[in-house]
Amino acid sequence: MKGLNRDAITAILLLVLCGVFFWQTFNIREVPFSQVGAEVWPRVVLVLLTILNLVYLFKSVTEPRPQAEPLSIKGILRKYKNPIICFVMFFLFMLVLPYLGMLVSGILFVFITQTLIGGASPRYLLVHALIAVLAVGGMWAIFTFGLRVILPVGDLFY
């Protein structure tokens, strides 16, 4: 064992947090006339998170530490380019949502984000468009027709 690094400490804290959350599932009130208790889904998710955290802890303890590169704005932007793109695109999605509605703005959000992160060759553009339309359109159809949830329509298409 090479010692605890930041990743190992983070994994231990996450494991403790999963344990506390699992313990709290015993306080979830039982719903009458239900076949499956209300505590089942949170426990399933917490067990999966615990397994992933155990893998994270194992990898952080057994693998060698990566070499630290000097701290610079350019290095940070290069390292975190994809998350920054996702956050900026989500902010723009939230800005255009009242105007374009859930369906159109969701499709644009997924398509543009995939294109910025995954490349813009003609083949990729077609794949990105298919994924955006099928994923967002499918979820929109499930919520609109299956669950009868009214999603934002938008001012431009109302």
Number of beta strands: 0
Strand content: under 5%
Shape: flat
> How many domains?
2
Helix vs. strand class: mainly alpha
Distance between the termini: 62 Å
Mean pLDDT: 90
Largest β sheet strand count, sense and barrel closure: none
How large is the radius of gyration? 22 Å
Helix fraction, binned, reads: over 70%
Question: N-to-C SSE series?
Answer: HHHHH
| Secondary structure tally, helices | 5
Low-confidence regions: none
How are the SSEs ordered, and which strands pair?
Elements lengths: L5 H19 L15 H23 L10 H7 L1 H38 L3 H25 L12
Word description of this protein:
It is a single chain. By secondary structure, the protein is mainly alpha-helical. The chain has 2 domains: 6-62; 73-146, no CATH class. 71% of the residues lie in helices and 0% in strands. It contains 5 helices and no strands. The protein has helices spanning 6-24, 40-62, 73-79, 81-118, 122-146. The longest helix is centred in the middle third of the chain and has 38 residues, at 81-118. The radius of gyration is 22 Å and the shape is flat. The model has no long low-confidence stretch (mean pLDDT 90).
